[in-house]
Design goal:
Strand content: 15-25%
Distance between the termini: 6 Å
Shape: globular
Order of helices and strands: EHEHEEHHEHHHE
Largest sheet: 6 strands, mixed
Number of helices: 7
Helix content: 40-55%
Oligomer: single chain
Structural class: alpha/beta
């Protein structure tokens, strides 16, 4: 086992895919958890002395053999809720900065291609995070900027809409929000 502290966005970068094993529970965080994450992000913004905010660990194992030219599959043992919630926030932020009325240096293309998608891949390999059961297709749609289907799991949709609402309120700029997400720290445990 190898553990190291890293920024959450750095963990998501690169050609990899975090998969939730079928035996793991489905996504269960509610808006209370999302609000706490939002408050944590706000605390890290604009403070040059703040080296980051620790949000927990992400524990995973490699899923068998893979080729150097392919997408490495990492099975999540712990950290599913955090990764999913941050992915929902990033997806909402990507959609928000797509609005021509929104002034932002960070682009939806940068957010999606670096942190939500493996942009050169196809099918399931396109997605950095694969959930299980109904959660899977809902998250896939949201990170691509598509509307959720009518029978989508309510927690994913509610939390995504929670972040959309916060972004619309405009208390923080998209660049400040992206800075805050970039300040989130995790323990990366392989």
């Amino acid at each position: 086992m190898k553990a190291s502290e890293t920024k959450l966005l750095r963990l998501l970068e690169g050609n990899k895919q975090f998969k939730i094993p079928i035996y793991q529970r489905t996504y269960s965080w509610n808006t209370k958890h999302c609000n706490q994450l939002w408050e944590d992000i706000k605390q890290t913004i604009g403070d040059p002395d703040n080296s980051g905010h620790f949000v927990g660990s992400v524990v995973y194992i490699e899923s068998g053999l893979y080729q150097a030219t392919g997408v490495s599959e990492l099975l999540i043992i712990d950290g599913q809720q955090r990764l999913t919630t941050v992915s929902l926030l990033l997806a909402a932020l990507a959609e928000h900065v797509d609005d021509p009325e929104v002034d932002s240096k960070v682009t939806s293309r940068r957010i999606r291609n670096n942190y939500l998608l493996n942009s050169e891949e196809e099918d399931d390999a396109l997605f950095k995070l694969l959930l299980t059961q109904n959660d899977k297709s809902t998250l896939m749609r949201l990170v691509q900027g598509l509307a959720p289907l009518e029978n989508s799991p309510p927690r994913l949709v509610e939390n995504y809409q929670f972040f959309q609402q916060i972004l619309q309120e405009g208390d923080l700029t998209p660049d400040e929000i992206f800075e805050g997400i970039g300040n989130l720290l995790v323990v990366d445990v392989a």
